[in-house]
# Entry
Amino acid sequence: MTNPISDIERAEVLLVTGSNTTENHPVLSSYVKRAVTQKGAKLIVVDPREIPLTRFAAKWLRPKPGTDIAWINGFLHVILKEGLLDEAYVKARTVGLDDVKKVVEKYTPEYVEKISGIPAADLVEAARLYAGVKAASILYTMGITQHICGTDNVKSLANLAMICGNVGIQGGGVNPLRGQNNVQGACDMGGLPNVYSGYQAVNNAAVKEKMEKAWGVTGLSEKPGLTATQMIPAAHEGKLKALYIVGENPLVSDPDVTHAEASLRHLDFLVVEDIFLTETAKLAHVVLPAACFAETSGTFSNTERKVQRVRKAVDPPGLAKSDWEIVADISSRMGYPMSYPDADAIMAEIARVTPSYCGISFKRLEKDGIHWPCTGTDHPGTPCLHVDKFACGLGVFSAVEWTPPAEPVDAEYPLTLTTGRVLYQYHTGTMTMKSPGLNDRAPECFVEMAADDARALGVSDGQMVRVSSRRGGIEVRAKVSAMTPKGTVFIPFHWASAAANRLTSATALDPVCRIPEYKVCAVRIGAAV
# Structure
């Protein structure tokens, strides 16, 4: 997030898109609801489904799945045509708007309506609402990113924020809400194939030299590694022989689960490190039992870039160890000794080699967290990014054309599937499905569909049906609901017994970040076998 969570309540307008916030981020959603009900903010929700947050919205736009760039370009078209942009901000702090102007010229409200289904008048009204205040905040999640054009979707939102001067101000920003508790921290620490900690590129010679000196080694590779979506097909082809999976359950969460399982079975050696015996762990040659958050010490970096202490409360069971202890032990046995006495020592090393974390220590985190970048031991941290200037100097507009989804509907597969989460289960259910209370509230998978589609297919509410795609099929219970528009169906991905990701595609990927297009694929619905 460019802005802290507290800024949500300082926004005059909130634009929430691709995020079922109340179910996926229930705590953070309370800030959104308070901003509307107590602080007078206006809420724009852009989502194909009638998510609970629409009840608080001044405007709800209901686009067809996979048409985000079109409606965002439509916003830009209206803002430019009506002179609603912040010209002083754009002139002083950005470059590249002329190229964007050329692209969005054709994205008239009427043209956008043909692509997205959003009525032209509603698009104009929403664009005016967003551009008509001094501080507007954009909140988004994987409904924006999990597309073949996910990177361009995010660039488009950045265009929208910059053209109205909403980056680097209180109550503004472009704010992705992270899907898991420390996914921000994992990325910050180099959990990506092309960077070290703090997003320092592996192919940067100066960074490589610094890391070699810090670790007392030579010959660190300058070649980026594989993304997760590249590893699985490489395993299937026999190019990848071994895989070490930590805290991930790809046999439920990866696209095209059938292919993912076959790929993992092709490995010569599979290691899984987790707190429970997941579906993936059951395939492993070796399972390493890890400690959970309450059984270890360290830090989490949350969705607003705030680094916070995690303190051990209880001892881990049996032979379970902290993740860092397991990694250090393996490294030492493989010939590179890692003799950290505790997590505090690791934090000290992080500060030495990571510019954005260099002022952070356990001692400073004793009472409260610190937002990175924190560039010195007396630096207070940076709750809001880009206040005076962008990290790269000037903000760069990106001219982006709408790209249709990889797999359109057709006569054989006439419905669009989109996937997501429900309030009472979390991710692949590794933890939540061990709770009887949560299982009582959300006991099984379902397919949510519009009444018109149900009637056309002869499906009644509560009936078991088979949902099929070009990758496979699952049997789930039908849930006839007004939440989902005609032509679109929704399936939550939590349940291994009816994994929605048996239907999604592993080959439809964003070309930049390699994320799969979880949010759009073509399916059909028939009788259960």
Remarks:
- The chain has a mean pLDDT of 97.
- The chain has three domains: 5-177, 183-371, 415-527.
